[in-house]
Write a structure and sequence with these properties.
Blueprint lengths: L14 H9 L2 H10 L5 H12 L5 H20 L3 E4 L11 E4 L6 H12 L6 E6 L6 H9 L2 E4 L5 H20 L4 E5 L14 H9 L6 H6 L3 E8 L5 H13 L7 H13 L5 E5 L4 H5 L7 H18 L5 H11 L9 H19 L10 H24 L6
Parallel strand pairs: 1-7, 2-5, 2-6, 3-4, 3-5
Antiparallel strand pairs: 6-7
Helix pairs in contact: 1-6, 4-5, 7-8, 10-15, 10-16, 13-16, 14-16, 15-16
Length: about 400
C-alpha cells in the first residue's frame, strides 16, 4: 500500500537494487570487516555476494544474511541465548511483541533468531527510530531487514500524523501482511533499566484502528509482552557517562557519534548470559477489562499489566543481587558466591575506568562514586521490579 512507502521495509522489487548499492558502500564494508577482520577483502566480498545470491524478500535476507551474523554475535559476545514462551502459544498466529529495550540493534535480532529456531513461521517487522539511521547504509540495511521507521523529533502536528501512519501500518502488518511485529515499550531505552510502558505507545496502537473501542483496537494487535534479560549490559558505562554529562553540563545532548558509539558497543560488547521470555498474549486479559472505563484509565491498566508481565519474567543473575545489596543494604549473599562478587567488582572497576579515562568527562571528585552508583542502579532495578511483581519467595 503506497500510503506506507515512507516508513515500510523494502518490497521484493526494490531488494536487488538496494543489495547492489550496499555491496559497494565503503562504510558498510568496513562494518563487516569488524566482524571478520581476519578475512581478506576479496574473500569477504565474495562471501557477501554468495550470501545475498537468490535473496528476493526481506524475510529471505534475514534468513540468509542476518541469521549467520546473529549466530556469530551470540558465539562471540554472549554466554548463550535462551528463549522461553508459553507452550500453548499458537505459532501460526501473528503477534505484536512488545518488550523492554536493552540494545538498539540486537533486541529484535535475537528475537528473530529465536522465533526462527522455534518454528514460529515468520520473524518480525521491527520499529526503529529514524534518529539512528545516521548513514545511508544503515537506513538501507535496516529496511532490508524488515524494519519500518519510527520518526523522531517532530512538531506536535507532525507527530500526530506520524503516529497515525505508524499505527495504521502496524495493524496492517499484523493482520493483512501476516507479519509478527516487534516494538519497544517506550521511546528509547530506560537508561536506569527501570522498564515502564509508556501510555503514549498504547495510545498510538489504538489510533490506527477503525472505531473508538480501545480494547478491540489493542486485541486486534495480539500483544505479547516480552522480557529481555542481559547479565551484563555492554553500554552501561556509556549510559552512566550520559547521566554524568547531563548532571555537570547544562544543556548537554547526545551527538550522532554518541548514538553510533552506542550501537557499536551494544553489538560488539560482552553480554554474558542473555534470556528472552514471552508472556501470554494479553487478548484474554483485555476481555476482563470494563470497556466503560475512561480511556485514560484503560491505558493505565494495560500499561501496568504489561509491566507486571515483563517484570515477573526477568532472568536474575548474581550481579543483580550484588547491586541491590550494595545500594539497599540488604543481605542476599546466599544468592551469590565470593567469586561472583569479586568478578562483578572487577567488571565495575573496568567499566568506570572507561569513563574516567576519557578526558572529556573529567568532573568533580565525586564522579567515581556517582558512576558506580549509577551503574549499580541499572543492575538493581530489574531485581527490584521482579520482587515487586512476584515476591522474594518466587525467585530462585
Amino acid at each position: 500500500m503506497s500510503e506506507f512507502d515512507e516508513i515500510r521495509p523494502y518490497n521484493e522489487a526494490e531488494m536487488p537494487v538496494v543489495m547492489e548499492e550496499l555491496l559497494h558502500d565503503r562504510q558498510f564494508n568496513l562494518m563487516i570487516k569488524g566482524f571478520v577482520p581476519w578475512l581478506p577483502k576479496g574473500i569477504r566480498n565474495g562471501i557477501l555476494r554468495l550470501l545475498m545470491k537468490g535473496i528476493k524478500t526481506s524475510q529471505d535476507f534475514q534468513v540468509r544474511f542476518m541469521k549467520p551474523v546473529v549466530k556469530l554475535e551470540i558465539w562471540r559476545c554472549t554466554k548463550g541465548l535462551t528463549f522461553g514462551y508459553p507452550k500453548k502459544m499458537d505459532k501460526k498466529k501473528r503477534y505484536l511483541f512488545m518488550s523492554n529495550h536493552r540494545d538498539i540493534v540486537l533486541d529484535s535480532a535475537f528475537l528473530d533468531l529465536a522465533l526462527f529456531k522455534e518454528d514460529f513461521g515468520k520473524t518480525c517487522e521491527i520499529g526503529i527510530g529514524d534518529n539512528l539511521l545516521i548513514y545511508p547504509w544503515i537506513k538501507k540495511l535496516v529496511r532490508m531487514n524488515k524494519c519500518f521507521t519510527v520518526r523522531r523529533g517532530l512538531t506536535a502536528h507532525e507527530m500526530m500524523r506520524s503516529s497515525m501512519l505508524m499505527s495504521r501500518y502496524i495493524h496492517y502488518a499484523v493482520n493483512d501482511k501476516d507479519e509478527n511485529v516487534w516494538i519497544a515499550q517506550r521511546e528509547g531505552r530506560a537508561k536506569d533499566s527501570d522498564d515502564r510502558t509508556q501510555d503514549s505507545v498504547l495510545k498510538m496502537f489504538a489510533m490506527g484502528y477503525e472505531g473508538d473501542d480501545i480494547i478491540a483496537a489493542l486485541k486486534h494487535l495480539h500483544i505479547a509482552p516480552l522480557t529481555i534479560s542481559y547479565e551484563y549490559d555492554p553500554c552501561d558505562y556509556l549510559k552512566a557517562k550520559e547521566f554524568l554529562m547531563k548532571r555537570d553540563v547544562p544543556g548537554w545532548k547526545k551527538s550522532k557519534q554518541d548514538d553510533l558509539d552506542n550501537m557499536k558497543t551494544g553489538i560488539l560488547g560482552k553480554k554474558g548470559r542473555v534470556h528472552y521470555e514471552v508472556s501470554p498474549c494479553i487478548d484474554e486479559w483485555l476481555d476482563s477489562l470494563d470497556s466503560s472505563l475512561p480511556k485514560k484509565e484503560i491505558f493505565r491498566l494495560v500499561a501496568e499489566h504489561i509491566d507486571n508481565e515483563i517484570h515477573s519474567r526477568y532472568r536474575i543473575y548474581p550481579c543483580n543481587w550484588i547491586a541491590m545489596d550494595e545500594l539497599d543494604g540488604t543481605d542476599n549473599s546466599a544468592k551469590y558466591t565470593k567469586k561472583d562478587r569479586a568478578e562483578f567488582e572487577k567488571y565495575l572497576e573496568g567499566q568506570i575506568s572507561k569513563v574516567l579515562n576519557d578526558q572529556t568527562t573529567k568532573r568533580p571528585n565525586d564522579q567515581k562514586e556517582f558512576l558506580r552508583s549509577t551503574i549499580l542502579t541499572m543492575y538493581a532495578n530489574p531485581l527490584r521490579n521482579k520482587l515487586a511483581a512476584v515476591g522474594s519467595d518466587s525467585i530462585v
